[in-house]
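Please decode residue identities from the backbone states below.
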């Protein structure tokens, strides 16, 4: 087998589990999305009402796709195509950084570059690996959509449009790996670019021009600055344009070629964005391992807290809009109640739904914080800490504690922003209590993923990152999309986000709070107890 073949095979073997989860999950979302649309918006009138309400208010277009008609297929693309592209983009940028800057940071790249493979061939193998992953994603997503009975041409375009966004972010990830000194920095840069371009696409759609019959939208120019916008401009099941998708493919390939060229211009372990110089001596506040963990993770916690604040303010300022939509289509209120589980008024339902999203953000923050323990172990820096009188149980406990505190910070930012939104709008005083109950419940749900990540870290150290993020993704799909996709109620209740307490009249329905607290306590105790006998597992 050729050197290139060996490198490509190594990447496939290393990533097969993670890519299977990403790709199959994306295809299942497409398949289940059709079931949800056909059940919740079964009539043409339902779909027309929703599109008319969306075109009348820009906020909806920020979080949905580009309206392109009232057929079931076009409405499905409006509902889920941006999120299919979002998953493909995340998969691709993480893959790119993992096999470039990640390998270089871990010392593996230097060993490979010393062989006849040289410096360029491993990066080229990563590019081909990423292209193949997106091709498989496009094929399975297309087959999932065709399996629902939708037209083959539109299904193929929807699948390939999502993959084209993945290819664009494959190039962005490869370029970020050359610019940033660490894999953490490269991943952070790609995620911020991803979020920014997703919002730019939404702004372009929101500022567009609706059609006379209020069934479609012509995007404004900002949408053409985003790979997500290019994917949506294909308009599957409507005009079926192919050329906008080619922009994403070409953009990704150009950046991939540029990353190969930039790699030849720098030394190993160097970067084009210089690291910030550190202090000559550490502050007294860094004398404890707990403070060190906080120092390592504080930047990402601040970013998640900003996201939490945005979610909180939206939760308490969109009730009027939802009132308007639900008046035109009562099915919307029913769907929101299914997601949130609330039984009160519509304002309570909206707050509960948005705080379910907040719980997912808090869980992501917890996972990212505790996963840092695995990163420290793999890089060998944990060994230096554990060589001191600090025991391994205390070391892991510090990551779990900081992870739970991070959840509290994210939820607190959302609650304060939500209360500010209520105050600015002169809202009902009972909303303050609803926000408090929803926020505290989602804090417990988010904290569970801190202890679950720690437990996975102890039992399956080399699979910590993949398994921990997969658990969050699965819980999010069940909790947020399960009711929309018509899944059984018991399956949605498996998600911690779906069983948190809600206000019920004058009281509080605790729902699954007790088993959440039990899982939190048992999981934390199990992780710390098992860590006593766990040996270090360095290496990726």
């Amino acid at each position: 087998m050729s050197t290139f073949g060996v490198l490509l095979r190594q990447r496939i073997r290393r990533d097969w589990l993670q890519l299977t989860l990403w790709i199959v999950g994306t295809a299942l979302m497409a398949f289940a999305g059709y079931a949800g649309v056909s059940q919740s918006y079964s009539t043409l009138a339902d779909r027309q009402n929703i599109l008319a309400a969306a075109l009348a208010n820009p906020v909806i277009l920020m979080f949905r796709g580009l309206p392109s008609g009232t057929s079931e297929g076009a409405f499905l693309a409006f509902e889920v195509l941006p999120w299919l592209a979002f998953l493909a983009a995340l998969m691709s940028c993480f893959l790119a950084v993992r096999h470039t800057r990640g390998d270089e940071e871990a010392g593996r790249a230097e060993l490979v570059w010393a062989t006849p493979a040289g410096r360029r061939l491993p990066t080229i193998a990563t590019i081909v690996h990423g292209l193949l992953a997106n091709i498989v994603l496009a094929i399975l997503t297309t087959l999932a959509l065709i399996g629902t009975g939708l037209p083959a041409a539109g299904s193929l375009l929807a699948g390939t449009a999502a993959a084209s966004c993945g290819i664009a972010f494959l190039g962005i990830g490869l370029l970020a790996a050359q610019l940033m000194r660490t894999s953490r920095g490269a991943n952070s840069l790609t995620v911020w670019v991803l979020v920014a371009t997703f919002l730019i696409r939404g702004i372009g759609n929101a500022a567009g021009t609706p059609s006379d019959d209020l069934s479609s939208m012509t995007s404004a120019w900002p949408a053409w600055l985003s790979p997500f916008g290019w994917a949506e401009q294909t308009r599957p099941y409507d005009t079926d344009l192919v050329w906008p998708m080619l922009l994403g493919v070409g953009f990704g390939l150009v950046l991939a070629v540029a990353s190969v060229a930039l790699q030849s211009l720098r030394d190993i372990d160097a970067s084009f964005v210089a690291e910030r110089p550190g202090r000559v001596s550490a502050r007294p506040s860094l004398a404890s391992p707990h403070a060190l963990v906080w120092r390592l993770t504080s930047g990402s916690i601040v970013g998640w807290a900003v996201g939490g604040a945005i979610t909180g303010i939206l939760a308490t300022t969109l009730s009027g809009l939802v009132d308007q939509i639900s008046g035109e289509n009562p099915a919307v209120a029913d769907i929101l109640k299914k997601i949130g589980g609330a039984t009160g008024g519509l304002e309570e339902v909206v707050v509960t739904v948005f705080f379910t999203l907040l719980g997912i953000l808090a869980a992501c923050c917890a996972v990212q914080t505790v996963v840092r323990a695995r990163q420290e172990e793999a890089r060998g820096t944990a060994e230096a800490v554990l060589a001191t009188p600090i025991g391994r149980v205390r070391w892991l406990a510090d990551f779990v504690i900081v992870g739970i505190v991070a959840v509290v910070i994210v939820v607190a930012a959302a609650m304060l922003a939500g209360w500010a939104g209520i105050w600015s709008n002169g809202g009902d005083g009972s909303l303050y209590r609803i926000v408090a109950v929803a926020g505290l419940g989602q804090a417990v749900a988010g904290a569970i993923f801190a202890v679950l990540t720690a437990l996975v870290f102890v039992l399956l150290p080399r699979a910590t990152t993949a398994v921990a993020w997969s658990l969050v993704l699965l819980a999010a799909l069940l909790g947020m999309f399960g009711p929309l996709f018509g899944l059984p109620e018991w399956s949605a209740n498996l998600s911690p986000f779906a069983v948190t307490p809600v206000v019920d009249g004058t009281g509080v329905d605790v729902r699954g709070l007790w088993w959440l607290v039990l899982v939190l306590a048992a999981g934390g105790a199990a992780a710390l107890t098992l860590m006593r006998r766990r040996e270090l597992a360095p290496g990726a």
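Observation: The radius of gyration is 24 Å.
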